[in-house]
């Protein structure tokens, strides 16, 4: 009985904390990698600095999936 309890606890912890990432290939991808995964031919990273010094990273997809 105790082993069943530990098994249920272990499975619930894996699901609750995302330790079972085998079902979602995008979980560890960057934004650029996800864009390529979904068929976008080109994706760029653009950096900008605000007047108060914050650095922003923006992602630009210039074309649709068909390249137009």
From TrEMBL:
The keyword Cell membrane belongs to this UniProt entry's keyword annotation:
no
Looking at the UniProt entry, the stretches that span the membrane are none
Q: Where would I find the Partial AB-hydrolase lipase domain in this sequence?
A: 32-66
Which InterPro entries does the entry link to?
AB_hydrolase_fold, AB_hydrolase_lipase
Pfam families on file: Abhydro_lipase
Keyword Acyltransferase listed: no
Q: Which domain of life is it from?
A: Eukaryota
Signal peptide residues on this chain, from the entry's feature table:
1-18
What keywords is this UniProt entry annotated with? Answer: Signal
Q: Name one GO biological process term.
A: lipid metabolic process
Q: What is this protein called?
A: Partial AB-hydrolase lipase domain-containing protein
Organism name: Acrobeloides nanus
